[in-house]
Amino acid sequence: GEPNVSTATSVREQHGHDESMHACAPPDAVVWPQSVEQVQELAALCYRYRVPMVPFGTGTGLEGGVNAVQGGVCFDLSRMDAIAELSLEDFSVVVEPGVTRKALNRHLRGTGLWFPVGTVDARASGSSWARG
Questions:
Q1: What pLDDT is recorded for position 122?
Q2: Domains of the chain
Q3: How many helices (H) and strands (E) does the chain have?
Q4: Are strands 73-76 and 53-56 parallel, antiparallel or unpaired?
Q5: For residue 56, which of 64, 44, 47 has the smallest C-alpha distance?
Q6: Which has the least CB within 10 A, 7, 14, 30, 93?
Q7: What per-residue confidence (pLDDT) applies to 60?
Q8: SS3 (DSSP) at 104
Q9: 29-31 and 92-95: which strand pairing?
């Protein structure tokens, strides 16, 4: 329920596009889960009723991946923003999906590490760390 679900036109339109050239395709509803368990429950309901699920982070993508071309429910993950674990020894961090790069770098301030924009190492499956 409120404030964790919205069917307001303005909210749906905000979540129906990213920074790509694609036209807005809003979802039927937007939800803000706050735990893994809530995501699991919502996903089970969507699966049961064959409702498309569209994950939403910050809306800054360039591919149109948040466009709900078949309607459905948008899962806005921005409220799942905890940094669960940081290991300086092996350069690893466990974060929830709503953690932004800027928030991670604020958390890393003072450790000598930072997480730069857009650095992908072809030998790894994710982005690279850097020492500041």
A1: 52
A2: 2-76 (3.30.43.10), 83-131 (no CATH)
A3: 3, 8
A4: parallel
A5: 64
A6: 7
A7: 85
A8: helix
A9: unpaired
In 3-state terms, what secondary structure has residue 5?
Answer: strand
Residue pair 39/75 in contact by the 8 Å Cβ criterion: yes
- Please check whether residue 2 is in contact with residue 8, taking contact to mean a CB–CB distance below 8 angstroms: no
Write the CB contacts of 127 (distance below 8 Å, at least 6 apart in sequence).
Answer: 115, 116, 118, 119, 120, 121
Confidence of residue 125 (pLDDT cuts 50, 70, 90): very low
Alpha helices (H) along 49-115: 101-108
Strands 5-6 and 29-31 turn out to be: antiparallel
Q: Which residue in this structure is represented by tokens 């003072």?
A: 110
Structure token digits, residue 33: 């889960």
